[in-house]
Design a protein that fits this description.
heterodimer, A: 112 residues, mainly beta, six-stranded mixed sheet, five-stranded antiparallel sheet, 11 strands, 0% helix, globular, B: 113 residues, seven-stranded mixed sheet, four-stranded antiparallel sheet
Amino acid sequence: GEDVEQSLFLSVREGDSSVINCTYTDSSSTYLYWYKQEPGAGLQLLTYIFSNMDMKQDQRLTVLLNKKDKHLSLRIADTQTGDSAIYFCAERDNQAGTALIFGKGTTLSVSS
Amino acid sequence: KAGVTQTPRYLIKTRGQQVTLSCSPISGHRSVSWYQQTPGQGLQFLFEYFSETQRNKGNFPGRFSGRQFSNSRSEMNVSTLELGDSALYLCASSPDGPNQPQHFGDGTRLSIL
């Protein structure tokens, strides 16, 4: 079945770059998404990438997609304490229309 | 533009009761999806509504149901509540069209005693 895998924790120092990794299983996924969840809040859409792209950059965020390995990564440059949150990778469930399949989330902890 | 609004933010119920949660999508968005988030299972898709019709459904028992109104607002209902239904219920809306990104509300935290 379809599954999205992420490492559970990442700890970085303020000012460093953070790289959050994700693997997905459905090679026919057309869009892949990154969401951020802060304590007590819902999911905030950070960015998304179309499967015919290798890279997408948006200010401090860079998404890299390796379709051959079904690997997606999110790089946050100059990580700030305000970036501390849980980051979710998601792919579209092609068996169920618009439904998203989420990874378990990566908790990013930024220390000053 | 206002974001996705979910009410109430918090609910406490007891086993056997039923509950109704509400979601107002972003203006102009016609698709509304619901997800359940728990520490053990993570984020799981419940169902999606479009033009007042359920378009997709996840793998949840029939106690979980929903509906959508003509103004795209949606409600979900859970009957005969069980302890395991304690979760954060998230609503997401999107414009129609393939692969339009979903935008989420802050959720309703449901606690079952």
